[in-house]
Write a structure and sequence with these properties.
4 copies of one chain form a homotetramer. The first copy, chain A, is of the alpha/beta class and about 375 residues long. Chain A folds into 2 domains: about 5-130, NAD(P)-binding Rossmann-like Domain (Rossmann fold), CATH 3.40.50.720; about 135-365, Dihydrodipicolinate Reductase, domain 2 (2-Layer Sandwich), CATH 3.30.360. Chain A has 10 helices and 17 strands. In chain A, the strands form 3 sheets. A 9-stranded mixed sheet of chain A has the order 16-15-14-13-7-12-11-8-17. In chain A, α2 links the parallel β2 (about 35-45) and β3. In chain A, α8 (about 185-200) packs across α10. The model of chain A has no long low-confidence stretch (mean pLDDT about 95). Chains in contact: A-B, A-C, A-D, B-C, B-D, C-D. Chains A and D meet through β7, β8, β11, β12 and α10 of A and β7, β8, β11, β12 and β13 of D.
Chain lengths: ~375, ~375, ~375, ~375
Amino acid sequence: MAETIGIGMLGYGFMGRAHSSAFRQIRHMTWPPPLIPELVSIAGRTGDAVAAAAEEFGFAEHVTDWHALVDDRRVGLFDNTGPNSTHVEPSIVAAEAGKHVICEKPLGLTADDSYEAWQRVSAAGVKHMCAFNYRFVPAVRLAHDIVVARELGEIVHFRAAYLQDWLVDPSVANLWRLDKSVAGSGALGDLGAHAIDLAHYLVGDVASVSGAMRTFTPVRAGADVDVDDAFAATVEFAQGALGTLEASRSCPGRRNSLRFEINGTGGSLAFNMERLNELEFSEGTGGFRTILVTDRDHPFMQNWWPPGHILGWEHTFVHELHHFLTAIRDDGDVAPNGATFEDGYRAAEVCDAIVRSADGQGRVLVSYRD
Amino acid sequence: MAETIGIGMLGYGFMGRAHSSAFRQIRHMTWPPPLIPELVSIAGRTGDAVAAAAEEFGFAEHVTDWHALVDDRRVGLFDNTGPNSTHVEPSIVAAEAGKHVICEKPLGLTADDSYEAWQRVSAAGVKHMCAFNYRFVPAVRLAHDIVVARELGEIVHFRAAYLQDWLVDPSVANLWRLDKSVAGSGALGDLGAHAIDLAHYLVGDVASVSGAMRTFTPVRAGADVDVDDAFAATVEFAQGALGTLEASRSCPGRRNSLRFEINGTGGSLAFNMERLNELEFSEGTGGFRTILVTDRDHPFMQNWWPPGHILGWEHTFVHELHHFLTAIRDDGDVAPNGATFEDGYRAAEVCDAIVRSADGQGRVLVSYRD
Amino acid sequence: MAETIGIGMLGYGFMGRAHSSAFRQIRHMTWPPPLIPELVSIAGRTGDAVAAAAEEFGFAEHVTDWHALVDDRRVGLFDNTGPNSTHVEPSIVAAEAGKHVICEKPLGLTADDSYEAWQRVSAAGVKHMCAFNYRFVPAVRLAHDIVVARELGEIVHFRAAYLQDWLVDPSVANLWRLDKSVAGSGALGDLGAHAIDLAHYLVGDVASVSGAMRTFTPVRAGADVDVDDAFAATVEFAQGALGTLEASRSCPGRRNSLRFEINGTGGSLAFNMERLNELEFSEGTGGFRTILVTDRDHPFMQNWWPPGHILGWEHTFVHELHHFLTAIRDDGDVAPNGATFEDGYRAAEVCDAIVRSADGQGRVLVSYRD
Amino acid sequence: MAETIGIGMLGYGFMGRAHSSAFRQIRHMTWPPPLIPELVSIAGRTGDAVAAAAEEFGFAEHVTDWHALVDDRRVGLFDNTGPNSTHVEPSIVAAEAGKHVICEKPLGLTADDSYEAWQRVSAAGVKHMCAFNYRFVPAVRLAHDIVVARELGEIVHFRAAYLQDWLVDPSVANLWRLDKSVAGSGALGDLGAHAIDLAHYLVGDVASVSGAMRTFTPVRAGADVDVDDAFAATVEFAQGALGTLEASRSCPGRRNSLRFEINGTGGSLAFNMERLNELEFSEGTGGFRTILVTDRDHPFMQNWWPPGHILGWEHTFVHELHHFLTAIRDDGDVAPNGATFEDGYRAAEVCDAIVRSADGQGRVLVSYRD
């Protein structure tokens, strides 16, 4: 029988809700689950709100200071779903207190603080994960498996665009996602970081970037917006492929469209997250086949539903947390299929390079620190 | 705060798993939930298996005789997910013991026993639901709302086909779904019943049918198959529309493809369950717009995720059970958006007419009993 | 070098325009062409109109009585593009005068007069073709080749629907296509005949049909409409497959949507004429691959454009006429890839069976005369 | 009645074939045509080959020196379809001899020689056109009309990728398109020029570019390849939009995929040339509607076929040449809907900027000469 692990969560927004729901569904992905999560306590600054969230999400307790989670002996896993500016310090403190840590992306506000988070959490000897959940879409894992099996031959192109439309309306008010001091950046860190992580996961190291950024609506609700609405970048990969990366929150009709395409000398793959159960695969030049990635032998699908019964976006979190719990239970590796804090740092390094490039520095070489 | 309701479940197969998972997610659809389900006990004939299922699904207890659920005072809702041949009697007995009843489709093996189930359960005064879960796909509800608002004008065509491919392989062994005494029929009752219920829900009464049935693989594993692999029928609706209905489990590449299209004098709708978050809508003749049915103001979506974050197949059960729990709590109506036992009976009446038509009776009029 | 052949055309409407344009493009499909068409003369009842058409279409002369074409020694090929009611007699007379004959579909207004046309034209010893041009879509020919090579195994399903939307507007005035004495039937003969011919071409003989017909708008511009707006039929094929056939001109948003799907024990094909350069092919159950049917080794494509440069609807006529000219030049067979008058008759036999079935006769057996 | 104009053509390859076919179809687009083209003479260096082409394409005569066309008084329109290196000089000489000139793209091998071509041809006072035929796709013109009508509001994004796959096979031998001295560049000038012209046509001036180029297969058939297999660039438009441009001939499964997407503050458009009859339009954020651009009131479609009967790739040339003949007849403007030599030059200016950027110059400002 499975053992239990206590969960302490920081943050009760969109991601807090998604992680909480996922913890409850772990048992439906495999039985027995690797570990049985117990929702011990949730932290947030506003007492009433966090109390309501605790009840709704199913946490037994709530606190208004995250340090209480770190000090709580019942907590074995610290789940950091707070705003971007709260990612680094609490993650480090929790790890140094011996908690395993999963932290939402982007890991830090800059490459430097992301690096520090990685170094210190890693030094603490705990398991760590940066919640790039799109690695846990079955179609994305299948894409990865196809690449690793060299069914595409040498990869020559990677293009990814993560497009949304909720900021095309200039009356959308200032959220924390529009405040640089809290979010670090705009579309770049919020959406682009996912595309960059997938580039790393599917193709490998980025050698150089050349990009531009735009804030199409510089004032909202009377306040200056100091983050980007969109960026675009040309990318050269270390192994020789040529790529484009893009993200925007100003693309009408694209609700949540993370699309990527990989071309290799032996075939191509295409994916669109609005149809996340599908992977398009051209074996050679014969045309794209739409694989409905719901078969029993597809990644993550062994214990879900019969073929053709699709999963939703939230299942990416179930798969991700299941992966992390398995690594904790087995003292196994989160990498390479799960993103670690190292991967979080590496994405930040590319983000920073794009910012520097857009700031007039032309093509910028990317150097990852060890 | 929400009150609790005890759940007693019959059956621990595919549907038992789906319902159990859904009960756990009710709280994520709305908080507070209409009622808080408590998984009291689950019944199945094979002791070891049902014991394992109880643990996996989260039921506190398990029994090998469903009568124990009916006698259990803690059970307020009897959830019948057993094979088709166990639908009628236990549902009636449970209702007559005062339990609210939800029963999987098809309601009975014939129109006659379905009618009896409806009459007796209804007479018992409890809430009753036939689990036509596809009414609870957000895109299907949206389609219904568009029809009801008369945005399509007069409906002139309805065509639905529910296609799967798992029986195209002749080596697939004899399951209960291939045994007439347990399943009642093959593709007709398993898949076609869904299409028929959607015809009722979206267009209305069927006036006549003319159909044909086929068993493409008459022997499997040495045993005769006595149910249909496929049927097709032409349908005339009482309000004048012309339709086609079809189901098959022998369509390679169609994993779980329930498609329908509605044409009216003012516009058209098209749906495909393999892309269940999408509804295609042609307002007038201007071409089809793909609506990603994930906005906050779309049906059922108020408390799920931000726009563009898609739901999975299993969420249909969350919505369905939430609807039923709400009706129980409020002493409200399950109809018209939820299917009652009356709807289960009416679908069976059409199924039977198709069988008679295929048996050489040509065009068969459908008459529904009151 | 190629010899020439004189063309005499009856009719100058939509089809007259399409055939005339195609004759001019034959040389672009292969060089040299099988025969070089010379547009000798065109016949129509209204002098001014046919004179204008002759000039526009490139005919050297025009006449108001089609008998003049039959008597014209320069005419080697009689191209009958007149309204349906002018198909039978002129085709017979022309053939009996020794002209090769191509006639638009439907061949006659009934199975009986279609049969007579076939018998007499065939007895005359000339080449004859019924202009079912959709056999000459490259993707359709490719589908046929795949079926013939048994890559689909045994065919178990065929479903075809030919949907348009121009009659959903009740103010569309009475055209000849809405007059039974000229058109014979409505959607059935106009659109359904194409679907029926494809059923014959791709699957084979029809054993029985069971159908229904509807006239949704029975009065237009003050006059009664005596043809159908739509039909639907269930079909049993002689070789065992189950099918549905449907046509309608009242489907908003479906401009010219001829779709078919074939399921076999070994795979499936799907086609949509609005995307006529594409064929979807599921080899086994692995999912549908979209083949862009524009490669040099695809049917008809050897001398067109490089891969990926799509053809249009009108090219079906170029391929069809090229096929017919080749048969004339070589004294070869029009069948099986081209439709002969026999195929025209056989389609009419199925149409008539559908009419009888819809007239209250239930399931109707189809018997083709030799 | 229409007057005639004599056509002298240089080149008898892929484009010579396409233009010749189109001249024959002008009359089918409108009757009477603006001018009736007479195929006077065609020039090519290899006598036998050009003689065969003359016969196939329908030219009355052929010559092996293009100067003969320029000296031919019967020639009113010089149609330059030769390899890229023959674009500039013959076009200038023909114009200075008083011939109207249409020249295939790219206009020159560099921005400088393209500029000279524009200046001198323009000074000659004849009509001139650079054959960016994709402006004459009905869906592209419709996109342009939607942009001009400001139905998209302010444009914020433009992304275009022109992807093919024929060079992914390393055994494809050295063609003129792989020889820099003849072609000027690889994917950039061949495919990218189209994407750049559409960027100009749909969005406007490019302010800066930042790009990278790759030759994935540097040696073919023992010879060095000195042109690019692919490029990618980030683009900043003068009016503020952010863009990406890309072209490659190494993308398996992408036969001839020119895709673009435009996002504005009020809506979005998407196009894919493999489905060139379709335009996807999201009015506001409501989702994309697929417009089948075949209605009578759609661009160019007034005299083609009834709605839903699709056009092919070659019709772009019919529309383009019709446009040019109309400008000649009326002494009207080729711009803004047709591309002039000025547009050819401007595309070359952007191409050159991309080359300089890829050569290590980072972000490069684009300045167009007057």
